[in-house]
Amino acid sequence: MLPEPHRLRRHSDFSLTVRRGRRMGRRDLVVHAFDRAQADELVSSGGPRFGLVVSKAVGPAVIRHRVARRLRHICIDLVDVVPRGTDVVIRALPGAATASSRDLEKQLRAGLLRLDLLAPVSTSA
């Protein structure tokens, strides 16, 4: 489970991130990111917060919950690498229902990388 300080809860936070943030689409996900320091209102500047949108288009409840669990697990690993004060909303597309956890993680990391929220991974070992 994603720790409480790293979860988006309020509808207004989701709306602000989706409407005013930057967006990067992948095959099975759309990643929205918003830097809370840019907000006009006074907000907390704690660690990154993640929110999930898994609609009925993804599939029945069992499939939607499976996709959400996979995405939450991936987000736990990203808490330490996404900049503080960033809100990230991950919208699952219908293809996420059949995608593996590894594919979802690759797509999410690629989206965050394109949004300049992750440092490029060095492959020289």
UniProtKB/TrEMBL annotation:
GO MF, any single term: ribonuclease P activity
InterPro entries cross-referenced by the UniProt entry: Ribosomal_Su5_D2-typ_SF, Ribsml_uS5_D2-typ_fold_subgr, RNase_P, RNase_P_CS
Broadest EC class assigned to this enzyme: hydrolase
Similarity-based family: Belongs to the RnpA family.
PANTHER family for this protein: RIBONUCLEASE P PROTEIN COMPONENT (PTHR33992:SF1)
Subunit architecture: Consists of a catalytic RNA component (M1 or rnpB) and a protein subunit.
Protein name from the UniProt record: Ribonuclease P protein component
Organism of provenance: Rhodococcus jostii
